[in-house]
């Protein structure tokens, strides 16, 4: 049970992050205005265009920080309401991300250099189950968004046609539409933000991209960001550790062992993490 003091600390932390993001936004706007002024004073067209391009970058960064501040403000409001109602589950930061994207379900997937899924955070159980399916089946919107470095969206029959395994399984969760956008930093894709059953038009909206940008630059990967997304992140370190153990037991490549774990999890309607824990405890042997 979280004490009143602990709740106050969480609220204060989110408030500090909101204030910091808002201050950064103001700083970027000031820089943009300075370059816009210099553009107006430029003696050549080339110099004018250079300052305008720099100003545009500053304004885009300002919008990113402002979105981050709004997400933190929303989290403060959720935490405040939670602190007043004893015995209720602590709100997840990702729930606010989902709401900002026009849906009740959203998830963030982080990938490694080999594009393998390393960790994920979800707003609710349906989005968590959807991301687990994607990890197990090796296909889905976040996977495509990270590998193709572009937004991905599908609904209805198109969803099932695009991902023959994932699509029907997702429909089994009651989800009929999905969209994902890559999370990029310095030209490198580091993950994806996915939304499930979003309102129409979300996939093509500026808001979707702005939230993804805010998560990447101001929250997940910034020096003062929260890589754990407020305790709602699942890492796959144990799954890879279990794959190494299965590889040794069966004398097969680690990649094959990982696929065995995923297949077992899918067959049992369990998470890969749960299967990995049983393997590591010696309760389950594959092959």
Description:
- This protein is α+β, with helices and mostly antiparallel strands and 287 residues long.
- It folds into 3 domains: 4-91; 103-202, Beta-Lactamase (2-Layer Sandwich); 237-280.
- The chain is built from 11 helices and 6 strands.
- The chain has helices at residues 4-41, 45-84, 93-100, 125-137, 141-148, 157-162, 166-172, 206-220, 237-250, 254-267, 272-280; strands at residues 105-111, 117-122, 152-155, 177-185, 188-196, 233-235.
- Strands 3-4-5-1-2-6 form a 6-stranded antiparallel sheet, sandwiched between helices.
- Helix 2 crosses helix 3.
- The relative contact order is 0.10.
Could you outline the blueprint of secondary structure elements for this entry?
Elements: H1 4-41, H2 45-84, H3 93-100, E1 105-111, E2 117-122, H4 125-137, H5 141-148, E3 152-155, H6 157-162, H7 166-172, E4 177-185, E5 188-196, H8 206-220, E6 233-235, H9 237-250, H10 254-267, H11 272-280
Antiparallel strand pairs: 1-2, 1-5, 2-6, 3-4, 4-5
Keywords:
60% helix, 287 residues, 6 strands, Beta-Lactamase, 13% strand, six-stranded antiparallel sheet
| DSSP strand content | 5-15%
Order of secondary-structure elements: HHHEEHHEHHEEHEHHH
What do the pLDDT scores average to? 84
Largest sheet, spatial ordering of strands = 3-4-5-1-2-6
Helix fraction?
55-70%
Q: Can you name the CATH architecture of the largest domain?
A: 2-Layer Sandwich
The largest sheet is: 6 strands, antiparallel
Number of helices: 11
- Inertia-based shape: globular
| N-to-C CA distance | 42 Å
Oligomeric status of the shown chains? Answer: single chain
Structural class: alpha+beta
DSSP, total strands: 6
* Count of spatially separate domains: 3
- Low-confidence runs: none
Radius of gyration over all CA atoms, rounded: 21 Å
